[in-house]
Every structure is written in C-alpha cells, then in structure tokens.
Amino acid sequence: MADTETTDQKLNFEQNELVLCFHGPLLYEAKILKAENWGPEDSESGDTGPHYYVHYKGWKKTWDEWVPEERVVKHNEANLMRQKQLKDTYSNKKKKTVRIGNKVSIEDQAKSNDKENHERGKKRKKINDDEEEEEFMNRLEIKIPLPESLKVKLIDDWENVTRNNALLKLPRKYTVADILNEYLEFKHNLIASTANNQKSDKDDIHSEVVQGIKIYFDKTLGNILLYADERQQYVNIRKQFLDKENSEIYGAEHLLRLFVELPRLLAHTTMDQAATETLEEHLIDFLK
C-alpha cells in the first residue's frame, strides 16, 4: 500500500465482520471479505481512505465489490430499523396504473418497479408482500427477440469488458438519450407525413414508450445493467456529471443490455393483454 497519510486512517470495520451496506438507496446485509486503507496510487480512480470488499448476503459472488467506508454501517438494532424504514419507504412507492385511452403507461410501470430493480440477485422467497407466486407466473409474458446482429454486439460487448478489461469511454458521443430522441423524431415525421400533420394517438404512444425506456434505463443502470468491472467507473462518472441522467452518459451498448432485462422487469407490472401486445410490438419495432 502507498505510504501516505491515508494509510494511517483508522479502519472502523474489520475482515469477516457482518455489516449493513448501501447498494443504491437501500441497506443490505453484507460480510466484509477484505479491509484496506487506500492511498492515491492504490486504485485507478484515485479514491483514497478506508475501503472494504464486501459480499452481499444471499447475492451471487459476481456482485461482490469494493465500497468506500461511507457506504458501510454497523450491524446493530438501530441500523436494522433504518434498513426496515428504507425498505418500507420504497415499498410504499407503488404507482397507480395510468392509461392513455385503453393503453397502460409504461412510464408509470417503470417507476413502480424501482424497488424490484434494486432487489436483483437476492434470493426471492416470494415475488412481493402482496401477491402469490402463482399469480405472478400467470401474468402475461412480454417477449422481445433480439436480432442476430444485436446478439453478436451483446456478446462482443461482454467479452470486451469481462475478458479484455476494455471499458467503454464515457460519456459516449452518441448517448441513449440521443438514440431515443432520434427514434421519436423519426416516428413523429413518419406519422406527420401520412396524417396531414394532425396529431395522432400513435404519436402519443411512441412518446410514452420512449419515455418509459428512458426511465427504466436511468433507474436500473447502476443496479442491474453493469458488469462487475464497470462499477467503479460508474461511481466515478456519476461524481463527474451530477447534473446528468444515466441516459445522457451511457450509450447503445448498455441500452441493449436493458432490452435483455426488460421482459423480467415488465413481468412485475399489471398490464392487460391489449397493453402487453401493444408494448411488445413497439419495443420490437424500436430494435429494428
């Protein structure tokens, strides 16, 4: 370790200690596997001070990560109560279904799934506090087949990051926000050219779908769309661009990962068959 003043800082937690650790806005039980004081030369990001390599209880090892001390708190009654309060707060943020005509708004469906997005990787004993697993399994499934060309890009992306340690340069020149806006403008112009410039219900649906994709991306990127090697980069880039959404920093590579996860995420919504078919149709169209 570098012999700087940061290495003299006291470690408030020790190896093998059971703690509570922030991951997103919630607290999770975790075990400290390593405890180190970092100097300026001990990390590529330049982060210094006490850091802990943690394993989240019930999560796969792929979620193990280095975290700064400010994300770790003692495993005691007070913090367990805090954990419960945070969880209850998120549980109460369920949104009512909003409809445009007879179409369910995926924007509000995206917001209502914010809690589930932070729970990925945990062993699920039940779907949520209000529904039985049988009801969940009977819900309508949304299928989003990826074109072969995009599957190849998805695999190449995975190999570059996980095997070659080749992280993407951020911010991307062509961001998710740019992609969504371009798609929406294309659809708007296409509709306008065939509808005598009159506003169409289809225009509203396209806007709604695009907004829903954006919300899902912004909410889920930091929790389920990153590979382990990208997490520190995410922490660093968020510090640099506090005024920007994730969709204004990341690009097509991470957006493609979202479409792999969307069927699972949308399974937690309450859309009827008509809304499900409409959404599926528009998501497939977006990937063309």
Automatic annotation (TrEMBL):
Residue ranges annotated for the Chromo domain, each copy included: 27-88
Residue stretches of biased makeup (Basic and acidic residues): 105-119
Chief localization: nucleus
Record keywords, A-Z: Chromatin regulator, Nucleus, Transcription, Transcription regulation
An annotated GO BP: chromatin organization
InterPro entries: Chromo-like_dom_sf (IPR016197), Chromo/chromo_shadow_dom (IPR000953), MRG (IPR008676), MRG_C_sf (IPR038217), MRG_dom (IPR026541), MSL3_chromo-like (IPR053820)
Region (Disordered): 89-131
GO cellular component, one term: Rpd3S complex
Domain of life: Eukaryota
Subcellular location: Nucleus
PANTHER family: MORTALITY FACTOR 4-LIKE PROTEIN, MSL COMPLEX SUBUNIT 3
Similarity remark: Belongs to the MRG family.
Entry protein name: Chromatin modification-related protein EAF3
